[in-house]
Amino acid sequence: MPELPEVETVASELRVLLLGKEIVGIEIIWPKSYELRSKRIIHKELIQNISRKGKYLILHLSHSFLIIHLRMTGQLLYVNGEDSCNADHVRVKIEFSDKSALHFRDVRKFGRIIQVDDPQQILKKVGIDALDPDFTVDIFNRILKSKKMGIKAFLLTQNYISGIGNIYADESLFRTGIHPSTLTHKIPALKIGLLYENIRRVLHEALQNMGSTISDYRDSFGNSGQNQNFLMVYRRKGEPCFLCQKPITKKTIAGRGTHFCTNCQKIYR
DNA sequence: CCATGTACCTGAAGGC
DNA sequence: TGCCTTCAGGTACATG
Fold this sequence. Notes:
The protein is α+β, with helices and mostly antiparallel strands. 25% of the residues lie in helices and 26% in strands. It has helices at 4-18, 120-123, 137-146, 151-156, 166-176, 189-208, and strands spanning 22-28, 34-37, 45-53, 56-61, 65-69, 74-79, 90-96, 101-106, 112-116, 128-129, 161-162, 249-253, 256-260. The strands form three sheets. Strands 2-9-5-4-3-1-7-8-6 form a nine-stranded mixed β-sheet. A two-stranded parallel sheet has the order 10-11. Strand 4 and strand 5 form a beta hairpin. Helix 3 (137-146) crosses helix 6 and helix 5 (166-176) crosses helix 6. The model has no long low-confidence stretch (mean pLDDT 94).
């Protein structure tokens, strides 16, 4: 499932592939995958910039914006004019003047492409990006102290800090030795600093490894990531903890499958 | 404010 | 083999 490192991998590839291209048509195969919240019909628009906030990808066009969220199984596949494309589950095709195209493939149909006049329509509720240089440990500390919720639930909520999903939440908490049920305001100051560092490190490393492919994630060339080979707890239920050898526990916390080591991760009360 | 549950979806995996 | 059930999870939304 694409989280910050996976979306950023796609974004940086698309910057190389798509900047300056002219959109000449959008074919909507599954209507719910494409939501029009702009009065403007795309006729001919240039892709002027590509950015990202949290798990949202933003294509800046001449007169509007395409906000894209891949949710669980979404993929943005680049198709060259000469390629034959017969992939299943393609929901939207964005076609360019040079006969290349970007195909939005999404098995489970949760993902969305939303066309808006102002990106803030979508992004105003999204918290600061976890790899934004302006996201400091002081900010992290202040937000954590102001909440009284489980740390796992906090990390998954995108309104405060954005980009962290189920995989990297579990990985960051394991590396910091914090139990996922610990309440945000009960985490000791030292651990807050370490958690901040580990979140940034885990995301950076995943980005260097082109993201984690658990089942569906692929980059714009259809390639898998490599970071799944470096995960320490996610999907390792019953396997020995890399620190103490005790079997990794999996349990539903904050409504999500949560992996942790009961021996290495302490709950602070 | 925060927690919980449901809906949206399909395919893979597990049980018998 | 085959059928049925469960599970996977990001976000929106409703409810307590």
